[in-house]
Every structure is written in structure tokens, then in C-alpha cells.
Amino acid sequence: MREERDYSLKGHNTFGIDARCSRFLEFGSVDEAREVAALLRMSPSPYRIIGGGSNLLLTRDFEGTVVRSAIKGIERRDDGCVRCGSGEIWDDVVAWCVEHELYGAENLSLIPGDVGASAVQNIGAYGAEVKDLIVTVEAVEVATGEVCELSNADCQYGYRDSRFKREWKNRYLITHVTYRLNRQFEPMSDYGNISKELARRGISKPTAQQLRQVIIDIRREKLPDPEVTGNAGSFFMNPVVSRDKYLELAGQYPDMPHYTIDDQHEKIPAGWMIDQCGWKGRSLGRAGVHDRQALVLVNLGGATGSEIVDLCNVIQRDVRQRFGIDLYPEVNII
Q: Can you say how many angstroms the Cα of residue 275 is from the centroid of all Cα atoms in its chain?
């Protein structure tokens, strides 16, 4: 187990915010997770559980304990499931699955973050969500130190949501996640620009590796590298609106992109609305909107978390005034 005092979190958030915490704890096994849980129970100070920091915005120093997992390991089971340590990098798991002819995670390629965070956030991209792969989540309950196994149904997954973000927040130290993959590859390429890019490359029947590479290339083209420009990927969730609201807006904006959820609901890309409000490529002080993807807020150099929040608030105001739709951050703001 690793323990640090007065610790900088700059290396643990992709926005590159140099906030500090009073104590930092990192566990590398289930037994160490139980030790960490005991330390948290004995301390009166607050605590926060983080993953790789790719979905995190720090607005201040944290007068308490920050905890993260460093549990590694990818284990293939006979039933086609894969059990992964919560500290594994998510994209490494996707690459491993493709290499071992286990399919279903290709559309989630290059999403930053750890395995544990995938189960908290219900990560998703290009028509896929990790909830459709998750079988169980293993964790240590902080209040009791007990090791437990939570089913997919227990977690109550929704769009970028789970009980870990609500009533279970900071309740569990996730140690492992088990995913069910498919032995037969069935490409899902009718979302976003995937099919267009495959056609441009002359690929009509992609392999899993070809599909994964196309998605990686598309993401790299649209999204800034956090090693160069601090960001947390998509900052806002794409709003789901009623069919009536969609039809009202479609009458004003005939070219508005949308994705049908069901007979009563449509999803409208938040990035498109932000772009329509004129924010793509603009900045507010040291915080800005990426010039190739308006859904991404960026640290232009030395921005504080509060400056990013100020930009978020102004964008939310402008979108609400123009479209009558509220945008909600996908990023966890602390």
C-alpha cells in the first residue's frame, strides 16, 4: 500500500490542475483495499475515491484523503468473460480483448481512464456502453471492510450513470470488474463517422482490429492529447429530450443531428449546440473550447478548476437561452 502526505494531484487528473490533498492512499490488492478501508474508518477527515483522473475537475485543494486503485491483471475465464483489476487502463483491456479474439468493446477504444472508473461512469461511445458488457463488480465496502460482489442489475446503470455516482458514492473501493465479451465479431459501424471512414479506406467488412483502429484514429483527430493540452474529453453529457422538444427544434434547425432513443425520446449532440452558440475555438481567460470538438473544454495553460467551471457555466447559460435545453457536466467536479 502506498501512502503520501500533502500530495499533488496534478499527475492524477488529465486537466493538469495542480491541486493537493492532505493524504493519498493507493491499494494494489484486495487485502490492501481492506487496509485502506480500515484507515478511512479510523480517520475523521473526508475522503474521495478517484480513478485515472480522466473524468475529474479539481477546483480546490482537498483537505482529506484521496484513494485510488493500482490493482492490475487481466484474466480470461472459460465462459468468455474477462476479469480485470480495477487499476488496469481501460484501453489496454480493449486491446487485449481484440488480440485474444474477444469482441464487443471495440467501439469503446481509446476512452481514457481505468477499469474501475468504467464501472462507475458507464463509459460509452459510438453507440456502445460498457454496461452491456459488465457482469459483476467486486469491491470492498468502506464502512465494514467486507468484500462483496455486485451484479450488473445491482449497479442500476443508466446513461453515464450508476449507483456508484449516487447513493453509493465513496461507499465502495472497486477491486475487479468482470466483462462478458463475444467470441464472434459483429461490427457496429453505423454510428458517427465510422462507416464513412471505413468506406474511405475501402473497407467493407472490417475486422475487429480495423474497426478499433478507425475509432482510435477518429478520436485522435477530434480530441486533444491531454499530455499536450489539459482536458477531460467530453465535458458535457448529450441531452436526451422529448420527441416534442426535438420536433420543435428540428423545425428551426432542419440540419440538426440527432439519435433516436425510443419512440418518445431523441438525443441531441451537446457539441453541436455549443458550436451553434459560437463557442468552438473560443476561450474565457485560460479556459477554452477545443477548436475541433466543441464538447471538449481545455486548459490553455495554467487554468484553475474554477476558471474551467466559469466557462462551463457560461456555455450552459448560452445553450439554455438559445435551445431551452439544460446541459449537465459528464465530468466529476470536486
A: 22
